[in-house]
């Protein structure tokens, strides 16, 4: 059932049934043909924001690096469940927390993305053939760090990514 979107009205109907406590969570899920994960996410949103919490989010919510690390460390301590951490830190969903845990456990840096995706959406600029070769070689030397290379040379992430792909497929003549 992943990827299925439910109307606000449907979610509200389920929440009203949940509030009556006539059914267990498992019974509600069976009756309304929804997953327990979906229901738990709706409950968190509904308890925090009322019917507004049942609306589908259309915007990206920024989180500080410190908040991400605190949430992950709380989870790894084993004292709180993912649902409790989502509530405590007001994280938009459990999947966001799981992504942070995965990044943290793979020893990568939880980045502070307070301005959304603007870093990777930098407008590209014209470059010379020699410059493109230098950019590609630098990117490859740094383990295909497209974002870092793009920032260093003030070009877009997309440009760096495409140049590396072309270089790998056809050498420097492909650039």
Number of helices: 9
Biggest β-sheet: count, sense, barrel? Answer: none
Order of helices and strands: HHHHHHHHH
Shape summary: elongated
Mean pLDDT across every amino acid position: 86
- Uncertain segments: none
Number of strands: 0
Structural class: mainly alpha
Question: Beta-strand level of the residues, as a percent range?
Answer: under 5%
Q: Tell me the number of structural domains.
A: 3
**Helix residue percentage:** 55-70%
Radius of gyration: 22 Å
For the termini, the CA-CA separation is 44 Å
Indicate the topology.
Layout: H1 8-20, H2 25-32, H3 36-49, H4 65-77, H5 82-89, H6 94-105, H7 129-141, H8 146-153, H9 157-170
Helix pairs in contact: 4-5, 4-6, 7-9, 8-9
How would you portray this structure in words?
With 175 residues, the protein is mainly alpha-helical. It folds into three domains: 8-54; 65-105; 129-174. It has nine helices and no strands. The protein has helices at 8-20, 25-32, 36-49, 65-77, 82-89, 94-105, 129-141, 146-153, 157-170. It is elongated, with a radius of gyration of 22 Å. The protein starts with 7 loop residues before the first helix and ends in a 5-residue tail after the last helix.
Question: Can you give keywords for this protein?
Answer:
InsJ-like_HTH, IS150/IS1296_orfA-like, 175 residues, mainly alpha, 59% helix
């Amino acid at each position: 059932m992943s990827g299925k979107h439910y109307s606000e009205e449907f979610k509200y109907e389920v929440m009203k049934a949940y509030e009556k406590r006539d059914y267990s969570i498992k019974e509600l899920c069976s009756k309304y043909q929804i997953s327990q994960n979906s229901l738990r996410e709706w409950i968190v949103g509904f308890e925090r924001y009322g019917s507004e919490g049942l609306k589908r989010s259309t915007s990206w919510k920024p989180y500080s690096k410190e908040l991400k690390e605190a949430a992950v460390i709380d989870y790894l301590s084993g004292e709180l469940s993912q649902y409790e951490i989502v509530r405590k830190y007001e994280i938009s969903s459990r999947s966001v927390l799981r992504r942070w845990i995965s990044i943290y456990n793979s020893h990568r840096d939880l980045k502070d993305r307070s301005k959304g995706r603007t870093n990777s959406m930098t407008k590209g600029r014209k470059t010379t053939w020699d410059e493109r070769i230098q950019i590609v070689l630098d990117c490859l030397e740094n383990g295909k760090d497209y974002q870092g290379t793009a920032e260093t040379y003030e070009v877009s992430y997309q440009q760096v990514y495409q140049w590396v792909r072309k270089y790998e497929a056809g050498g420097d003549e492909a650039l």
